[in-house]
Amino acid sequence: MSILSTRKAEKIDSLAEGGTSLAMDALRRTFRSPVAILGLVIVGLFVILAIISPFIAPKDPYRPYPELKAELTPSNIPGPMPGFLLGSDQNGYDFFSRLLVGAQQTLFVGVFATLIGVAVGMIIGGLAGAFGGWVDSVLMRLTDIMLSIPSLLLAISIAALLPGSQWTVIIAVAMIGVPVFARLLRGAMIAQRSSDHVLAATALGVKRKTIVFRHMLPNSIGPVIVQATLTLATAIIDAAALSFLGLGDSDWRRAEWGLMLGNAQELLSVKPSLAFFPAIAIIIVALGFTLLGESMRESLDPKNRR
């Protein structure tokens, strides 16, 4: 029986090899694109900065400095001065150090919001695609309800119901991506049902669990990964939007770009750079993830294959 099972698996895997080669070909075509390389460079620099920022920050980003607070008034926030490259923020903290460390917190919010959205969406989409029938109908009606609500309004509603914290922002932003990932994976798995290797596995009597986890899911996850890259960009922007609307993290001391941008909205006439630098940083990082994600999407599109 073990020899027969091994031969069955080898026969089915040989039918599925085309999916692997197409994925590798798409990856090669992605990194031949100058747009993808530019996006990868931006994302790479952002990730490196997020990792090393606590070690390269010239000052403690969570400590007020007397020399800054001495010149701090309601109508004057100190600008660049010796030892403080970008001067002070509205609370007497070193603004440049907070901007550096803010990369880490921004990446934390974006990555965890995306991971939670992917995980919950894949569970819903995987169950719907694997079982079909009434399970598919119930789960897809649930995602339809979520998709019928504008994404930012959905995030605002969730954030308003929960106590203000960083995890509230993460959960609110994550819920935006859940129906998108669920629909995407479910559609890809339904398309896999009629593929040769899945039909062969079914004809050979392979269990549904094995078919789903060994043959359908691995060949359906590519579009989900691409969408996750794009969702990371929107997650960072949506988190900043919640902070700007006063529904973000209640800890105003936390160095995070969206929160810094939200806290600076009343100080634009006093020191515009408090909002300008976090906003530019968010735009550049979102652009990097978008360029990379769009290039990956184009590479996976069958119309672009030669």
UniProtKB/TrEMBL annotation:
Coiled-coil region(s): none
InterPro entries: BP-dependent_transpt_permease, MetI-like, MetI-like_sf, OppC_N
Family per similarity comment: Belongs to the binding-protein-dependent transport system permease family.
UniProt KW keywords: Cell membrane, Membrane, Transmembrane, Transmembrane helix, Transport
Membrane-crossing residue ranges in chain numbering: 35-57, 107-135, 142-161, 167-185, 224-247, 274-293
CDD domains: TM_PBP2
SUPFAM superfamilies the record matches: MetI-like
UniProt cross-references to PANTHER family, sorted A to Z: D,D-DIPEPTIDE TRANSPORT SYSTEM PERMEASE PROTEIN DDPC-RELATED, OLIGOPEPTIDE TRANSPORT SYSTEM PERMEASE PROTEIN APPC
Occurrences of domain ABC transmembrane type-1 (ranges): 103-293
Membrane topology, from the record: Multi-pass membrane protein
Domain of life: Bacteria
Keyword Transmembrane helix (UniProt): yes
Chief place of localization: membrane
Species name: Prauserella alba
Subcellular location: Cell membrane
Name this protein carries in UniProt: ABC transporter permease subunit
